[in-house]
């Protein structure tokens, strides 16, 4: 996967999060809010667990 493809996937994922928050709360999240949430321990731990699971399935 090329770097540009990765950047596009990250941008699309952030947009998905912004839209999801808007769908469930009525107010779309900003990219700054998503960035702050991604730095929280619980979110980091969930992401780590998901990546470990994906790697085990390969």
Give the helices and strands as they follow along the chain. Answer: HHH
Q: Which regions have little confidence, pLDDT < 50, spanning 5+ residues? A: none
Mean pLDDT: 94
What would the principal axes of the Cα set say about the shape? globular
- Give the count of helical stretches: 3
- SS elements, strand count: 0
Distance between the termini: 16 Å
Judged by helices, strands and strand pairing, the structural class is mainly alpha
What fraction strand?
under 5%
Q: Main beta sheet: strand number and arrangement?
A: none
Radius of gyration equals 13 Å
Residues in helix, % = over 70%
Number of domains: 1
What does this molecule look like?
With 58 residues, the protein is mainly alpha-helical. The protein has one domain (3-57). It is 83% helix and 0% strand. The chain is built from three helices and no strands. The protein is globular, with a radius of gyration of 13 Å. It starts with a helix and ends with a helix.
């Amino acid at each position: 996967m090329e770097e540009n493809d990765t950047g596009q996937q990250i941008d699309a994922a952030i947009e998905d999060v912004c839209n999801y928050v808007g769908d469930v709360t009525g107010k779309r999240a900003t990219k700054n809010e998503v960035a702050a949430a991604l730095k929280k321990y619980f979110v980091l731990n969930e992401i780590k667990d998901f990546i470990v699971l994906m790697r085990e399935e390969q």
